[in-house]
Design brief:
Blueprint (H helix, E strand, L loop, with lengths): L8 H21 L12 H12 L9 H4 L2 H31 L3 H11 L7 H27 L5 H16 L18 H16 L1 H13 L5 H24 L4 H10 L15 H13 L12 H15 L5 E2 L2 E2 L2 H29 L4 H12 L14 H25 L17
Antiparallel strand pairs: 1-2
């Protein structure tokens, strides 16, 4: 009997996301998902479903006046499944792999999810579910307080729940038409949403390790130290730079530095950003959140390792961090991921300039980086994109969430290779 060949884990995950996107698109296309007198073309429903499952936040329509309560609830479920579901699916696969599966798949999935090989599946899964519920509940309660001053109690509670889930899952969707511009003077709203974004962006495994290590008074792992230090540096540095190059006050500069890390909410008009602020926003969006989190981007660890190893190469020394040597395999992976992301963005920008060049190259670059990094910030051109442009942005959101992992898995699969004699290439 011929042995059935199994697909790699990453491809199964990518196909799972694709199924969720298509199911969500069908539901959002149904008339029951639209407010009276409104409709949603299927390409926009597909775009919105992809943005939801990939926890991006870009939308070609104003969902506050287009989607009904049913439609916005479907969207809320999509970005909750997209954020939480990625971790849960990975955790479930960990449990299956403990019972069977190849060693290659085992290591590949642990590396993808950022979990230790000795981590217990049930413990991890319970922590993911419990922490998500508790954090989102606290966020809902805190946001209900200011929202209840402008809306009825049921509506304020629904908006608070929607916003809390969107923030923790780094999705960036809102029910206000203008995101948080109307609450840019509310510290409770800005800092609550910012806290949800940061917590959702550092990753479940790191949160779990923090609780365990603090309770046991043990030192943090190298991964956790890199994530925390890089996150803190980007938040502090980003806040100061936004404060200096724009007319934002400190709390809105902090919020801008936070939301660019793949969240998508905004308390400042993105079309009014100064040129330096646009460059800074694009850079922060490209870096994104941390591995194993609800956010996107190339990840803080990739950025840290790439920068650290580049400086170490100039000094002809080994790349180290916190008195630990960074392995050559880790350095190679970081540069591979970094390079693939840049190539994808360059190709996409070229295509967007062909399909929607009249919208402006800066605006298109901003939009595509936001899509790839699953951020959701825009300079107001999403609804103006052509059908071809929307397809390109849709694919970027998908590849930014799951596609590069699949490509890396395919190209790094262990096959018999021919060995060649090394040749010298002059660099620089």
């Amino acid at each position: 009997m011929k042995k059935q060949r199994r697909l790699p884990v990453e491809i199964n995950l990518a196909l799972g996301f694709l199924v969720m996107i298509l199911a969500g698109a069908v539901l959002l296309y149904l008339p029951v998902s639209h407010q009276e007198g409104k409709s949603l073309p299927f390409i926009d429903a597909l775009f919105l479903a992809t943005s939801g499952v990939c926890v991006t936040g870009l939308t070609p329509v104003d969902i506050s006046i287009t989607l009904s309560t049913f439609g916005s609830t479907v969207l809320m479920i999509l970005f909750q499944v997209g954020g939480l579901g990625y971790a849960v699916i990975a955790a479930l696969l960990l449990g299956l792999i403990h019972k069977g599966g190849s060693l290659t798949e085992h290591h590949m999935l642990f590396d993808t999810f950022g979990a230790d090989n000795d981590m217990k599946f049930n413990t991890l899964l319970r922590f993911i579910l419990a922490s998500t519920f508790i954090i989102e509940l606290i966020g809902t309660v805190l946001l209900f307080i200011p929202f209840s001053q402008n809306y009825s109690v049921p509506r304020a509670l629904y908006i608070a729940l929607f916003t809390s889930l969107a923030a923790f899952n780094n999705a960036g969707f809102d029910l206000f038409s203008t995101s948080l511009l109307g609450y840019n003077d509310s510290p409770l709203v800005l800092f609550t949403v910012a806290a949800l974004i940061i917590i959702g962006g550092i990753g479940y495994v790191l949160m779990m390790e923090l609780l365990v290590r603090i309770r046991q008074k043990r030192r943090l792992s190298l991964h956790s130290k890199i994530v925390l230090s890089t996150t803190a540096a980007l938040l502090v540095g980003g806040t100061l730079l936004f404060y200096l190059v724009t007319d934002m006050d400190m709390k809105n500069a902090f919020f801008q530095a936070t939301t660019t890390r793949t969240a998508g909410f905004f308390s400042y008009d993105q079309a009014a950003l100064t040129p330096p602020a646009i460059v800074l926003t694009i850079l922060l969006m490209f870096i994104g959140a941390s591995p194993g989190s609800t956010g996107g981007g190339i990840k803080t660890t990739t950025f840290f390792v790439a920068v650290k190893s580049a400086f170490s190469l100039l000094r002809n020394k080994d790349a180290t961090a916190f008195r630990r040597k960074i392995s050559g395999e880790t350095i190679q992976k970081s540069f591979n991921f970094f390079s693939m992301a840049l190539v994808l963005l360059v190709i996409s920008l070229f295509l967007l300039c062909i399909t929607d060049g009249e919208l402006g190259i800066v605006e298109l670059l901003y939009e595509e980086v936001s899509a790839f990094a699953t951020v959701g910030l825009t300079m107001g051109i999403t609804s103006k994109l052509s059908a071809a442009g929307k397809i390109i942005i849709t694919l970027l959101m998908y590849f930014g969430r799951v596609g590069l992992l699949t490509l890396i898995a395919i190209f790094s699969s262990r096959r018999t290779r021919v060995s060649y004699i090394e040749g010298k290439v002059v660099i620089g």
